[in-house]
Design a protein that fits this description.
Blueprint: E1 3-7, H1 10-27, E2 31-32, H2 46-57, E3 63-68, H3 76-85, E4 96-101, H4 117-121, H5 135-141, H6 147-153, E5 161-164, H7 172-186
Length: 211
């Protein structure tokens, strides 16, 4: 069974995290290897932060599941977890990344980037498939995705899925397929690591304050 780490905004999206844990425990969709990421000294270098998360919190997992809500992209810890997932560590190698778009984003699109995904997950979809070739198109279609995810959706050597919550919520077999396929893809993904790590949370309130 594939072991996965779940990255999410604890304040906003805890109920979705708990439902994933239920699917893991009762249906065997994946082995839940998540460990609560504790306080990490912000004064450490980005390299040191990545090493701590990769080798201590993500160890023994081969997939990072990102639960994407409306404020996910603003959280520094989530960005740390994503970039750390994309880098080989001294304890274990880089992970595949599966993005689950939560209902709060109101997004009606999906990105089927894994082998066999269209037939397995979207067998009932009869519309046409479109390949996005520009960052602006991804940003318009998925305004709540972290920039780091969008950068890698554009990479031809990265296989990654963005799946709506509705496609896995009551379909544990779909979640298992996606996680297993993501684990295989992660072994050969050549991630874009150029974006600097986020050093602060951003509070998307009208006063644009930082916290």
């Amino acid at each position: 069974m594939t072991k996965a780490f779940v990255s999410y905004h604890h304040k906003n999206d805890q109920s979705y995290r708990e439902h994933l844990a239920y699917l893991a425990e009762h249906y065997g969709s994946f082995e839940d290897g998540s460990v609560e990421v504790g306080e990490i000294d912000d004064s450490l270098s980005s390299e040191a932060i990545r090493r701590i998360i990769r080798d201590e919190y993500l160890r023994d997992t081969s997939v990072t599941i990102l639960l994407c809500g409306t404020e996910t992209r603003f959280r520094k810890h989530i960005d740390w977890e994503l970039k750390s997932s994309m880098i080989d560590g001294s304890v274990n190698k880089k992970s595949g990344i599966l993005v689950i778009d939560l209902p709060s984003t109101s997004c009606t699109s999906w990105h089927a980037g894994l082998p066999g995904e269209k037939d397995a997950i979207y067998w009932d979809y009869t519309g046409g498939w479109t390949n996005f070739e520009t960052k602006s198109k991804f940003e318009t279609t998925y305004p709540d995705l972290p920039e780091r995810i969008i950068d890698n959706l554009l990479e031809s050597e990265v296989a990654m899925s963005v799946v709506p919550w509705s496609r896995i919520e009551n379909q544990p077999e779909n979640l298992k397929f996606l996680i297993d396929a993501t684990a295989i893809a992660g072994r050969s993904n050549n991630y874009d690591l150029s974006l600097p790590m986020r050093r602060k949370n951003y509070n998307p309130s009208p006063d644009f304050s930082f916290v």
